[in-house]
Amino acid sequence: MENASGTEPKFKTKTSAGAEPALMELFLDGIRDIYWAENHLVKALPKMIQAATSGKLSAAIEEHLTQTAGHVKRLEQVFELLGEKAIAKKCDAMEGISKEAEGIVESTDAGTATRDVGIILASQKVEHYEIASYGGLAQLAVTLGLDDVAEILNTTLAEEKKADALLTEIAENEVNYKAADEA
Questions:
Q1: pLDDT, tens digit, 9 for 90 and up, residues 52-80
Q2: pTM of the entire predicted model
């Protein structure tokens, strides 16, 4: 289909005639996946808070738990904007990362900075997965002409990046040094 200038549009979007249904379905699949992941984190993060020794680390995870509940609500907004039911699709990646985090907690001694280092490493794996997911989905939303959805996804993406930076700061300025001094 030609556009006003008489050439084929570079991308077919939701607003252009003949939008690519397979691309939209892939996008929806990604939204359902991250929706499952965020709901899973709402249940998993309290375990990490409880296992952490560092007050700064506990506070950072607590803050991110509050944000994560907001991410779930934002994703529900996205479903609404898309005219879709908010349905989660099991996220195998987040399930695996969560199991790994539980393994780290189980294999380290309670009350140690070493455990906190492990919690930070596991938490950053979560953040990086979320950053990759939200970044890709936000760009795909733009491609599909879903600018309002992209804006919501980019808001969450910015929060995920801040959470990752805070974890790095806690590791670099406190926890890693304490762990290095443990017997």
A1: 999 999 999 999 999 999 999 999 999 99
A2: 0.87
Structure-block tokens of residue 18: 């003949």
Q: What is the CA radius of gyration of the chain?
A: 19
Structure tokens at 6: 């008489």
Among 165, 100, 102, which Cα is nearest to 131's? 165
- 17 pLDDT above the threshold of 80: no
CB atoms within 10 A of CB 142: 17
Assign 145 to helix, strand or coil: coil
pLDDT tens, 91-149?
Answer: 999 999 999 999 999 999 999 999 999 999 999 999 999 999 999 999 999 999 999 99
CATH numbers and ranges of domains, the chain: 21-181 (1.20.1260.10)
- Per-position b or e across 7-42, b if 16+ CB within 10 A of its CB: eeeeebbbeeeeebeebbeebbebbbbbbbbbbbbe
